[in-house]
Amino acid sequence: MQRLERTNFGSPERLHTSHGLRVSVTNYAGGSALPLHEHDDAYLCLVAAGGYTQQSSGRDTDCRHGLLLVHPRGHRHANRFAGEGARCLSVFLSAELAAEAGVRRLLDDHRVLQLPGAERLLRRLERELAASDDAAALALHAAVLDLVAQACRLDRPAGRPLWLGRVLERLHDDPLATPSLRELATLAGVHPAHLARRFQQAQGVSVGEYQRGLRIGLARKALAEGRRPIAAVAAEAGFTDQSHFARVFKRMTGQTPRDFRQGMQNAS
């Protein structure tokens, strides 16, 4: 298991460091993989294009375009990149900013968040990274503050719910199960409406969308590992309608099931 300091695997295409802030953009080839590793400092990773599967604590997380991943200090994970590869924007914060109460709470656990306006933030961050005028550094710092503020707001008002781990474990244990919101709320010990609202705030997506992401993760494995018909893969992943499966798959991965399978076969 490898340990990294304030850096990432790969050679960044763009890199900015100043006043304790480090922002980089790195491209990863399709079909490649990163070994199990951890970082000495917490950092944020915004998926700018493509996608990959993160392996952590025995679970796979589908990391797709537009998602923000919060990696706390010492979070152990490995990555497998899909056929189209991925482009990742990583942010290591200054010690001063990381010490702020809201930011400190944000960085204390691994989170996968869907930020409102993620596309706008990505364009702004990449534009300022590429800029070379006298105001570029200041503008980049402002963009990072915007990113961090939005992430912190998703985690309010009471931080990460104590019951969230139980609900996530239930969903991950059997992605093909169809527990009702009331069943999950009973497990959590909260009202169904409260669970739905706080789950969305903590994870950035609804319970149903999160479950679809887990099922798409199963489908990606099946498409990469075998030659079964796509209709069969869709059914095994819990989708009764192949066209609906294809739409959800493309929305979450950026590719059709057929293109994803072809890309994986070409990469191997």
Could you explain the architecture of this structure?
This protein is an alpha+beta fold and about 270 residues long. It has two domains: about 150 residues, Jelly Rolls; about 100 residues, Orthogonal Bundle (Arc Repressor Mutant, subunit A), CATH 1.10.10.60. Helices cover about 45% and strands about 25% of the residues. Strand 5 and strand 6 form a beta hairpin. Helix 8 packs across helix 9. The model has no long low-confidence stretch (mean pLDDT about 90).
Question: Can you lay out the helices and strands and say which pair or pack?
Answer:
Blueprint: E1 2-4, E2 14-18, E3 21-28, E4 33-39, E5 43-56, E6 59-64, E7 67-71, E8 77-92, H1 95-98, H2 101-106, E9 111-114, H3 118-130, H4 136-154, H5 164-173, H6 181-188, H7 192-203, H8 207-225, H9 230-236, H10 242-253, H11 257-267
Parallel strand pairs: 1-4
Antiparallel strand pairs: 2-3, 3-8, 4-8, 5-6, 5-7, 5-8, 7-9
